Structures are given as structure tokens and as C-alpha cells.
Amino acid sequence: MISLSKGLQKFCIPWKQLDWPLGLHSNFGFEGPLDVEIGFGNGAFLVELAMASPERQFIGVERSLGSLTRLFSRLVRDDVQNVRVIQADASFVLDRLFGPEDVSRLFVNFPDPWPKERHHPRRLIQPDFVKLIGRRLAADGEVMIGTDHAKYAEWITEVLEGQTDLVSKNATTFVSEISGRKPTKYEQKAREIGSRIHFFAWKRATPVHETRREERVDEMPNVLLEGSFDTNALENCLGEKVWKFDQEEMVVVRTANIYREQPSGHFLVEVMVREGAFSQHFGVSVILRPSNRLLVKLSPIGFPRPTWGVKQAVKLVSELILEAADVKVVSSNLPDLEAETSTTATE
């Protein structure tokens, strides 16, 4: 057994702290084809693949802490060295953490079918997601999707047959058996009750025309203010607000609760930033310094990555203080702090 905290430290890739796309050699210590499983459940399928191919790199993408705990126990028990984990949204991981043609094989085993019609937009297999898969697969890359849900199988069939980036490896859109495949625990249960299994084994069919996008970790934003201010007025000005920015993708910045640290009187502003499929929930600290100074910076709470949206959050909190108090900017690593920004703000 291994504790969750030790498992996270040993096997989870600290992707918020790294340049994107990820440098996989530094995470595994060796070069090798990359295989990815999205939603690995109890981890048995992923571990068995990794043990059978120690020369390959394996990454499991999952959000459930329960699934992570079960996988960590298997990795320790079987002394598996070529598996790492990313705890994040699958669409975001493929889009931002992997680059063009990075993935050799992608496995999606029995994703949530979201059977109610109003929940269909939550299904993982969507036209845009399939196009993204096509851009991430290597030249000989392949994707395997499995489901026992008949209506979801119809949905997946329609999505796959409606695009040209991927092509079936078989003469049919799906098959019911995969030679040499060891079934997952969920798959075994489905077969026991007589459910039909649908396997979609597809491969990349078209060239990839996408420039590799580099996103490096930047310095943490901070602003130093100086002047006359009333702490009660500051607390009132830092209330709940929402800003929306129309960038390459919609960026939403929301301030929520305000906390006061005792006895120092420092403020902590709860902030949520959504940049496309990437969301971060963190704190912005407003620290009272000697000589009537205020330092506005990111709190370590939430381990925020200093993206454009996160920098905007620090800038917007600083601007709220500038409007409410008789202070000026002493120093800042945010450009054009006092320039007018085209945003929409609501109380």
C-alpha cells in the first residue's frame, strides 16, 4: 500500500509547474512511444499494458482520487516504473499538455455514456474531440474506444463516420472482439449480464498541419502599491465580480469570497479563472506592508499556473484597490496596469 499523498508525489506529473507541451523524457527518464488511457478506473488495464511493454511510456488521465489511489497501489505492488498520471480534464490534457503527433496509442475504455439527452453535450466523444485526437496521434497512431452502452455506441458511430481525420482499422466501424485484449473489470461485468461490447479501433488517416505551441511557465505576477487606504473600504471594494475577455478563447475571471488574516489584517481574495477548458481556483493575497504599502500577489493556495487569465486576476484586484484608495503603483511586473482594459464587469 501507498498513501495518496506519497502516490501523488511519486507518480503524478506536476503539469502546472512545467512548460507545455510536456517534456516526457524528463518525466520518465527514457525515450519511448507514448500511450495514454483516459479514465483508467481501477488501473488494472493500464498497469497490465505497462508491464507488457516496459519500453513504452504510459500516462493515465483521471480526475477521481479513488481511481488514483487504486492505481498507485497497483504500481507499487507490481513495481511498475513506466506509468505516470495527470489529474486533469481529458480534453484540456490532449489540447495543451500534448503536442502534435505525441501520442502513439490512445485508449478510452467505457466512458460515461451520459444517457439522458440533456446531458449528451457532456459526452467525451464529440466531433471536436475526435479532430483533436487526430492531431495528437503519431503517423501510425491509433485510438481504441470501448462501450457497452448501445445508444452511446450509435452516437460514437455517427461521430466517427462523420469525419475524415481517422479511419477504421477494420472493415466495419466497430467490432465486438479484439484479439489478445485482456478485458477490464467493467467489461467482464458487462459481458456477464449479456451486454454487447462495441470496440472502435481507428487510426490516423490524414497529415497533421499544426504548429507545435510552446507555453512556458512565466514569473508569478505581483504589484506593489503605496498610499493612503482604509482596510474596511478595501474589503468592501473586493467583493464578488465577474469579468469576461474575448481572447482566442473566452476567458472568465470571477472574484468570490474575501478573507481576513488575524492578527495581520492581510486579505485573501478567492478567485476562479476559466480559460477555455482550463479552470483554476486559487487565491490572490493583498498583504499589508510597512510605510502604507500593499503587495498584491498570487497565494500558493490552489498552486495556480500564471496564465494570461491568472495575471489578469492579479491586475484586476490591483485596479479595484486603485479605484477605492488613494494609492499608486510603486512596482509591477504586469504591463500596462493602469491602461484601460476592454472588459465586461458585473457586480
Helix-strand blueprint:
Layout: H1 4-11, H2 24-28, E1 34-38, H3 44-52, E2 57-61, H4 65-77, E3 83-86, H5 90-97, E4 103-109, H6 127-136, E5 137-147, H7 150-161, E6 166-168, H8 185-192, E7 198-204, E8 222-228, H9 231-237, E9 241-246, E10 250-260, E11 267-275, E12 278-289, E13 293-298, H10 308-324, E14 326-332, E15 344-346
Parallel strand pairs: 1-2, 1-4, 2-3, 4-5
Antiparallel strand pairs: 5-7, 6-7, 8-13, 8-14, 9-10, 9-15, 10-11, 11-12, 12-13
CATH topology of the largest domain: Rossmann fold
**Helical amount:** 25-40%
Structural class: alpha+beta
State the domain count. Answer: 2
CATH class of the largest domain: Alpha Beta
Structural shape:
elongated
The H/E string reads HHEHEHEHEHEHEHEEHEEEEEHEE
Name the CATH architecture of the largest domain: 3-Layer(aba) Sandwich
Q: How are strands sequenced across the largest beta sheet?
A: 14-8-13-12-11-10-9-15
Estimate the strand proportion. 25-35%
Determine the N-to-C terminus distance: 49 Å
What Rg, in angstroms, do the CA atoms define? Answer: 24 Å
Main sheet specs: 8 strands, antiparallel
**Secondary structure tally: strands:** 15
CATH superfamily of the largest domain: Vaccinia Virus protein VP39
- Uncertain runs are 339-347
Taking all residues together, what is the mean pLDDT? 92
Number of separate helices: 10
